[in-house]
Amino acid sequence: MNWTQLIDPFHNLGFSLLVAVVPILFIFWALIIKKMKGYQASLCATLLAVLIAIFVYGMPVKLALLSTANGALYGLFPICWIVITAVFLFNITVRSGKFEIIKYFMASITPDRRLQALLIAFSFGSFLEGTAGFGAPVAITAAMLVGLGFNPLYASGICLIANTAPVAFGAVGIPITVASQLTSIPELAISQMAGRTLPILSLMLPFYLVMLMAGYKKTKEVLPAILVSGISFAVMQWLTSNVLGPALPDVIAGISSILSLVIFLKFWKPKNIWSFPNEPAPTIILKKKYSAGQIARAWAPFILLTVMILTWGLQPVKELLNSVGQVQFEFPALHNAIIDTSGNPIPHIFKFNYLSASGTAILLSSIIAIPLIGLKISEVVKVFFETLKQLCFPIITIASVLAFAYIVNDSGITLTIARPLASTGVLFPFFAPILGWLGVFITGSDTSSNALFGRLQSSAASSIGVDPVVTVAANASGGVIGKMISPQSIAIAAAAGNLVGKESDLFRFTFKHSLIMLFFICLLVLGQAYLFSWVIPQYHHVAATTIPASSPGTPNKNIYLLLLAAALAVVFFIILMMRKKNKNTN
């Protein structure tokens, strides 16, 4: 059974557009006005999209159901797998009592909630986005902030907003890589163009986050720290994206921001310690309560997480793990059954990469950390099943959101919405980020958004005489703003922040900020296209090439796993020695 996508089922683009946006508008209505629970809104929106695909677009019932099932399966793995393992890692840290030590450590750096948010939500979250992506940063940082005593709504909302600037370079630059593959524009050129847009947002974001939490007057009190955090991140993001390419900007910028802020806070402290209204005043412990060894053990799960995820993000490691731990199959009766508007069959290949998935790296980090944090295996197993119970509704939400994304993409609904934006002529650069924003809202992924609209962005820009790298990079830059309101991201943040059933509150919290930032990016891209064209990098289109794969057992791949084993051994040894020294001292 083959079926060709439609863009204008009513032969009237305006009317077709009105029908196509109904499922999207339903989500906004359900979450903002009706205040539905996340899983209810996503299930209803998916059903609505399926009905429109079948009865308006003429999509065969079998293909519509298979497309929906394919999306739900992708939602379960790898997305839900990441969320489950991230929350599990946090939960075992709490159950072991080690998170109390982490609280003390953070308070020893600064008990000020404004600065804790910068360190964890912005800097550490950006580092995690650069290494893992796909929901892990929000899941981990939101859980950490709630554990530190943050208001759950603010913790989750702040982490969603903080997870904007790094998204375009997330998961070791995969969004930029995908955009390059689809448009024949070199990776470095797209990276440079995004790297001349997003650092401006990165520079403003710490100030925006703190002002959102504490107001303008309280934000001025910590302005020096904000400048250190934002400038150190923005400078390194700009430098690495323009010189090294898309793989490392978030990793290097995140580490730079963390180190810069921690060192700065050794010499500077705000005059007043700020906490949330009605929150008990933080107690500053002047006498040392925990030894360095105890602090190292408490941080062990997150130290191991950093090492594991950084290694898992390396392409040679992914290839090696996939060679022995991946099941790949064509989705039955759906693969190549849908023909796109260009006459090409759309592949639907499901990859169950159970070893190279980021969630597996997080799970292994948790398992390796068990002897260091001192939990019994029976207790760990109990925590895992408690985590599954805790995430029951978020799992349903995420699976249904991905099902929604797949059906609107496969049916052509997304293309119907995109076509009018691509027909705006000289104003198209202003609307280019909106396409990326819309793509991430629907799919939950900047990678998927670039795959969806990359070619459209390139061809539309060329038709009006604008360098296509501007609009292709704008798709990635606009997409990062859509991340904070994507139902997938909302579900992840709600799960991590103990806000299950209150997804509508979280959506309303982030929605207006998403629109404000999107408008800023739209103006910036419009200026780059016509007024500041000198920022556009010089490049030459590249032809698609096939890179021969080396055999799975070659040293260039195995060496990374050997280095990982050595790094883990070093971490273990240092922590155990610190623990032994502490016992001897006592």
Key words describing this protein structure:
single chain, two-stranded parallel ribbon, 4 strands, globular
How would you explain this protein's 3D organization?
By secondary structure, this protein is mainly α. The chain has one domain (3-273, 287-535). 72% of the residues lie in helices and 2% in strands. It has 26 helices and 4 strands. It has helices at residues 13-20, 22-33, 38-55, 61-95, 98-109, 113-131, 136-147, 152-162, 170-183, 187-194, 198-214, 216-221, 223-243, 249-267, 292-312, 315-324, 358-373, 377-390, 392-411, 413-422, 428-443, 446-463, 468-482, 487-496, 503-530, 555-585, and strands at residues 3-4, 327-330, 338-339, 349-352. The strands form 2 sheets. A two-stranded parallel sheet has the order 1-3. A two-stranded antiparallel sheet has the order 2-4. The longest helix has 35 residues, at 61-95. The radius of gyration is 23 Å and the shape is globular. The termini are far apart.
